[in-house]
From TrEMBL:
It comes from Exophiala sideris. This is Pyruvate decarboxylase. Its cofactor is thiamine diphosphate. SUPFAM superfamilies: Thiamin diphosphate-binding fold (THDP-binding). Transmembrane segments: none annotated. Pfam families: TPP_enzyme_C. Signal peptide: none annotated. Residues 28-105 form the Thiamine pyrophosphate enzyme TPP-binding domain. Belongs to the TPP enzyme family. Keywords: Decarboxylase, Lyase, Magnesium, Metal-binding, Thiamine pyrophosphate. InterPro entries: PDC/IPDC-like, THDP-binding, TPP_enzyme_TPP-bd, TPP_PDC_IPDC. It comes from the Eukaryota.
Length: 120
């Protein structure tokens, strides 16, 4: 799906782990956060990358892969992307009903890892 010139952003946790051994096309830039305590950074990072891509005049899309829990932390930035006319953004949501990586670390039964269900 990725094309030359695209920017790929993966959220910390499940999305990031899935791309650890991915082979990307030439000139695809990959952005991720290595410090795990930063969930939610990727939606505003997507905004910044998409804005920079647009202002540079270079072709390419900004592709975000984010979990539903992380998305809910900073979803308002999607509105900011729309306000700035950023139309070349693709957001892929891993909808797994909450903070799955936190469940793996701290136990699957803790209710604080549950989130509201959104119809993405």
């Amino acid at each position: 799906m990725l094309q030359e010139g695209d920017i790929l952003i993966a959220e910390s946790g499940m999305a990031q782990f899935g791309f650890s051994d991915a082979v990307l096309p030439n000139s695809v830039r990959y952005i991720t956060q290595l410090y795990f305590g930063s969930i939610g950074y990727s939606v505003p990072a997507c905004f910044g990358a998409a804005l920079a891509q647009k202002e540079s005049g270079k072709p390419g899309r900004t592709v975000l892969v984010v979990g539903d829990g992380s998305l809910q932390l900073t979803a308002q930035e999607i509105g900011t992307m729309i306000k700035h006319g950023l139309r070349n953004v693709i957001i892929i949501v891993i909808d797994n009903d909450g903070y799955t990586i936190e469940r793996a670390i701290h136990g699957p039964e803790h209710a604080y890892n549950d989130i509201a269900a959104w119809n993405h």
